[in-house]
Amino acid sequence: MRPAGSLKRVSDGDGRQLTGRKVFILLVGFFGFVMVVNVFMVHAAITTFGGVDTPSSYQAGLAFKSEERDAAEQAARAWRVEAKISSTADGSSVSISVADDAGRPVTGADIVTRLSHPIDERRDITVPVAELGAGNYFGRVRAEPGQWTLFIDIFDGDDRVFRSRNRVMFE
Question: Which of 73, 158, 154, 148 has its CA nearest to residue 112?
Answer without folding.
Answer: 154
